[in-house]
Structures are given as C-alpha cells and as structure tokens.
Amino acid sequence: MKPNFDRNNLNSKGINVPDVNIPISTDFKILSLDGGGIKGLYAAELLAGIERKTGKLTGDYFDMICGTSTGGIIALGITCGIPCEQIARFYTEHGPLIFPRGNWGERTFRRLRQAFFGTKYGNANLENILHEFLGGHQTMASANHLMCIPTFNITQGRPTVFKKPFGPYHRDGRFSMVEVALATSAAPTYLPSVSIEGDQYVDGGLYVNNPSMIGYTEAKDHFIGKEHTIDGHKITYDGVSMLSIKLPGDPKGERPFINPRRSFSKWGAKLVGTAMTGSDYIAAYQTGKLIERDGGLFYRLTPPSLSSSQVKIVDMDNTSKKSIQLLTSYGKDAGHHYTSTQWNEIEHFFTHDKSYKF
C-alpha cells in the first residue's frame, strides 16, 4: 500500500469549486519488537543502522510501536526520541549491571537461588538505569506514539497491555514509563515482579513474546477503515504495514528419548524459553497471514542462525564480553544487510513519515 497524500487540486486546474478536504488514504505502520533480555542489543544495533541510512529517527516513521520485555524497553526509548545508537549503548554499558556475571561460584549460587529460593537477579540496578535512560518524570501520556506494551497481571490473573492514552483509553496515562518497562521485563525467576497501584505484573513474554498480533488487533479494532482527524486533515487508514523484529538465539531441539518425567528443576530456564519461542512462531505466522489477507504488508526481520558454539553464549541474561561482542557484530551486520542489498524489502516502511499524531 502506498500512501496517497493528494488533496483536492481542481482549483489549480482552473476549475472553480469549493475547497473540499478529501480524506487521505494511507497505511497504518507498526513496529513490533520481540522480547529476549540482553539480546535486545541486536535489534537496537540493527535499527541504528537504518537510522544512519535514513538520517532520521526510527520513531519518525511508525504510527504504533509494540514491544515485549526488552522490546518494550526499546519501544519506550524510541517513543522518547532516543537514537537507537544510544539505545544500543544502554545494553553494552548497563547490561552487565542488570545481569551481573560474577565468578563461577556466584553464577552457581544464582542458579540455585533461581531454582529453589527466589529470582536470579534483583531489579534495583535496572530501575535506577531506567530512570536515567527514560527520565523518571516520563509517563505513558507523554509517549509520542500509540503504544502496546504487554505484561501479565498475576494479581488478577490476566494479560494486560499498557497503552498511550487515546479515545476512551486513558487509565495508563498516569503510569510512569519506568514502571511499565520494569513490569514488561520482569521475567519470572529472573527478575522480581513489579507492583503498580497494588497489582503485581510480570513479563508479557509469558503469553506474547512477539507482540505483533497485539498490534494488529489493536489497529483493526480502532484504526483500520476508520476516519481520523489529525492536524486538521481527515485520514482513513486502509490497511496495516508491520515491521517485526525477531531476536537471535532460539533454544534448539533436544536429543531423542529425553526423560519424559523431568522435574521443574531439570527443565530450568528451558521451560520459559520454550514457551516464549513457541509463542514467537505462532504469532508471526498468524499475524502475517491476517495482514496479507487484508492486502497489507508484513515483514519479519529474522536474524541469521547461530552456530552451536554461539548459541551457548547467547542467552537472555548472558552479558559476558563474548556475548555482547557477538550481538553487537550480528546487529551491525544485519543493519548493513537490510540497508544495502535487502533495502528494497523494507524500504516501504521508511518512505514516508508516520501520519498518526497527537
């Protein structure tokens, strides 16, 4: 879908007619960012490469930004106008403080604590860093985009999606971006749950690590096929264009005849990872089919496969020098790949600015 920004220009052709404001027909553009802890560095570097090519911020191009967990942190950074190169530095500089490595003994202690006593890490460092990164005064009402940040409300036992207020949806406007970032990234057994106005929240990756379906549904419910007045002009969105970014390092399959009666401690981190990976795949498949059926555009940026040795050092909380170097390298390479030989595949998302403005 290509946008049509032509107004009534009959007067310019010498035809004397009243000035009629013809509705603009355009696509509703969504950026969707998967969860994955420190692996968000890959997405930040990829987007930084696109920003270097376009000379503009990522947020200039998208009407809605969706992000789960680390994707939610990136989404909030983008809507605050933070360049993706700076977001990448957030991970390289502060990742080891959020997920401290320590020596072998300390890592062993954390694994035991995670399995039997509590979360593997605290979130005090993350909270302090987010206050500096996003600004402690920023609320969801101050976002510059429509937002969808999934979390799970364990107090009420149901999914929750934090939004930028629009239309009748105003509750989330008073919540701070730091609160929302902590809630969406509170991976069970890794980081503590987060209390917001008496309810406890954990990572939205439990049910939608890939938030593309959340964004699609929100767009269909409230924006597609409906007329909106923005900056004095009437706009009708005729379909969805979505750019979805997957993170590297999926957990691999296992050897045949694995123990069919594994305990929780034997499953370990693979239990959460398997659930998140499964939801990633099905969300991408379903969203892509629905958008294509509607005549829209869905493009999923899929990272290259990692070798068996690389997979061992790329995990959501592995902040070793090797892991950060690998994620940085792969992210920069992906940015170069999509801004050179594959630019034609994603160029549509960066040909015109976002049209939905507050």
Q: Your description of this structure?
A:
The protein has about 350 residues and is of the alpha/beta class. Helix content is about 40%, strand content about 15%. It has 13 helices and 9 strands. Strands 1, 2, 3, 4, 5, 6, 7, 8 and 9 form a 9-stranded mixed beta sheet that branches. The longest helix has 25 residues, at about 270-295.
Set out the fold topology.
Layout: E1 24-33, H1 40-54, E2 64-67, H2 70-79, H3 84-98, H4 104-116, H5 124-135, E3 146-153, E4 158-163, H6 177-184, E5 194-196, E6 199-203, H7 205-208, H8 212-222, E7 227-230, E8 233-245, H9 264-267, H10 269-293, E9 297-301, H11 308-313, H12 321-339, H13 343-346
Parallel strand pairs: 1-2, 1-8, 2-3, 8-9
Antiparallel strand pairs: 3-4, 3-6, 5-6, 7-8
Helix pairs in contact: 1-3, 1-12, 2-6, 3-5, 5-6
List keywords for this structure.
16% strand; 9 strands; 9-stranded mixed sheet; disordered N terminus; 358 residues; alpha/beta; 41% helix
Low-confidence stretches: 1-20
What is the distance, rounded to the nearest whole angstrom, between the alpha carbons of the first and last residues? 23 Å
Secondary-structure element string: EHEHHHHEEHEEHHEEHHEHHH
Number of helices: 13
Assembly level: single chain
Q: How much strand content do the residues show?
A: 15-25%
**How many extended strands?**
9
Secondary structural class: alpha/beta
Rounded mean pLDDT is 87
Overall 3D geometry? globular
Radius of gyration: 21 Å
Largest sheet: number of strands, sense, barrel closure: 9 strands, mixed
- The residue fraction in helices comes out at 40-55%
